[in-house]
Write a structure and sequence with these properties.
Chain lengths: 242, 296
């Protein structure tokens, strides 16, 4: 199995706070790994290191064989990495199609064709009808869908997702989870998917990894991991219900 | 006949002039809305274009129409230099308020320097030349041919700019990138290249406009102020960050200008014009078609 993402003994401090403590993780090509943990556990920090926004203080990270060591984040797109943010970046003065078309840059410089491609991806996420609407008019859920469409439009080899589900209703979460999973299935992309809620990714990921206070405390089959005592304690605190 | 004449001078002539006003203000608007840089030396770019056309005509007898491509090339060069030397550093700060402040200070100094050098080299005395001054009769008013040249130049510039902004990938990036600079990183967009292109577009327009209007104005080192004010007024009128607003703003400005000139005593024309402008802004601070700017 080809290792697409390799995180090797990564540690990161913010001042006196150790955000990541000797975290190691290997993700094979095509694998979908869920990354969960309580607030402050270091999930987003780890993802930001993968996105080259931060450098690890110890250890190193490799994506598709390329060592990410202070690399320009701009070059990540060349490597085939796309990311979906917790706070989607909407360009309000452009149309929805133009927003997504920006993601097609690497492949298609002609705006007309880029927009046509963008509309295809928008249809895949169910936003086809709003393609020519100003992006400022989308509601919060639709903005997430647009962000997903833009990431899909980049045809990434690696997809990094940072809390796509937070703040969405039950039904919206179900719908968007399904969209992501079917996209990952059909594209074969590798993914690390960070979410906060303990049970949110069980069906969508091949493997579940849990961080707590910067340390990796569980890594395995989703169903088993969420029943792991250490994981439950991490979320609820370590007292038993009498 | 009298009514027709009046309509020509009050409505038709301003409309003939407005494409150039659009082009003049577009450069300023685009630069500001895509990079948040305020170019106080903007009017001086018009002056440079005017002097270019003047010298080419005075020394080499090159007609202004041929000077226009020369002016465009000069504009590209100036835009590139201004980006590399000035804008690049200012944009690196990443903060909107810092960019706005620093750009005002830097370009103000640049403006003073440019005006000083030109006044030294070519004297502060105004010069002018006549070209295609023969008139076309519209009613009993004789409209010089060069006015039409100016109009056509303005139309071509405006049209080309809109095609660039709305129908090319680069244009979409220029319009959008300031609202999501971190997105640029993620999708592999080179923001320096985008900002440089925006800078170049925003200098080519005023320099070419200057070459075009050189046929009809008194050219002197300080003529730029008037055009900076026009650019500011039209941009604010039409809406910051909205290139289509520049179109609306320019037409409105041209009509306001002619209406005031006609209705009110001439001495205070500028005063009335700016008062009207102020009133409009008080009612609609973001301009007629402006969108509220998101300050990060």
């Amino acid at each position: 199995m080809v290792v697409e993402i390799r995180i090797d003994r990564v540690s990161k401090w913010f001042g006196g706070i150790k955000a990541l403590d000797n975290v190691s993780l290997e993700v094979s090509r095509g694998e979908v790994v869920g990354l969960i943990g309580p607030n402050g556990s270091g999930k987003t920090t780890l993802l930001n290191i993968l996105r080259c926004l931060l450098k690890p203080d110890r250890g190193w990270v490799e994506i598709s064989g390329a060592r990410l060591n202070g690399m320009d984040p701009e070059r990540l797109a060349d490597l085939g990495v796309a990311s979906i943010y917790q706070f989607p970046r909407v360009i309000r003065d452009l149309t929805v199609a133009e927003n997504v078309a920006l993601g097609v840059l690497k492949r298609q410089k002609n705006l007309w064709r880029a927009e046509l491609l963008a509309i295809e991806y928008l249809k895949d996420v169910g936003l086809g009808g709003k393609a020519h609407m100003m992006a400022a008019k989308l509601n919060r859920y639709e903005v997430r869908l647009m962000e997903l469409a833009r990431a899909m439009a980049m045809k990434p080899r690696v997809l990094l997702i940072d809390e796509l589900l937070s703040g969405l209703s039950e039904e919206e979460q179900r719908e968007i989870r399904g969209l992501v999973r079917s996209y990952l299935d059909s594209s074969g992309a590798t993914a690390i998917w960070v979410e906060h809620a303990i049970g949110s990714l069980v069906r969508e990921v091949d493997r579940l990894v849990v961080l707590n206070y910067g340390s990796l405390i569980a890594d395995g089959e989703p169903e088993k991991v969420i029943r792991d005592q250490r994981v439950i304690e991490a979320y609820l605190g370590s007292y038993t219900i009498a | 006949m009298e009514l027709f004449d009046r309509m020509v001078s009050l409505i038709l002539l301003p409309l003939i002039y407005s494409p150039l006003y659009v082009a003049v203000s577009l450069g300023f608007n685009i630069l500001f809305s895509s990079t948040r840089i305020i170019n106080i030396a903007y009017g001086d770019l018009v002056m440079i274009g005017a002097y270019t056309a003047y010298w080419l005509y005075a020394i080499y007898k090159i007609p202004p129409i041929a000077s226009i491509p020369v002016a465009a090339v000069i504009g590209i060069f100036i835009g590139y230099v201004m980006y590399t030397i000035i804008y690049n550093r200012i944009l690196a700060s990443g903060s909107v308020s810092v960019i706005e402040e620093q750009s005002i200070i830097a370009t103000f100094g640049l403006s003073m320097a440019i005006q000083g050098v030109v006044a030294y080299l070519w004297s502060p005395t105004a010069v002018s030349y006549t070209y295609l001054e023969q008139g076309v009769a519209m009613g009993s008013i004789l409209v010089p041919l060069n006015v039409f040249i100016i109009m056509i130049t303005g139309v071509i510039m405006t049209f080309t700019t809109y095609i660039l902004l709305y129908r090319t990938y680069i244009g979409v990036a220029i319009r959008g990138i300031i609202q999501a600079p971190r997105l640029a990183l993620d999708i592999g967009l080179n923001t320096s290249k985008i900002y440089m292109l925006a800078s170049i577009v925003s200098t080519v327009l005023p320099v070419v406009a200057g070459a075009a209007i050189s046929m009809r104005v008194q050219i002197n080192p300080f003529m730029g102020v008037e055009y900076l004010v026009i650019a500011l007024v039209i941009t604010a009128l039409g809406g910051l960050g909205n290139p289509v607003g520049s179109l609306v703003g320019a037409i409105l400005y041209a009509l306001m200008d002619s209406a005031i000139g006609y209705l009110l005593p001439p001495g205070l024309k500028l005063f009335y014009l700016y008062t009207l402008f102020l009133l409009i802004l008080l009612v609609r601070p973001t301009g007629i078609m402006g969108r509220p700017q998101i300050v990060r």
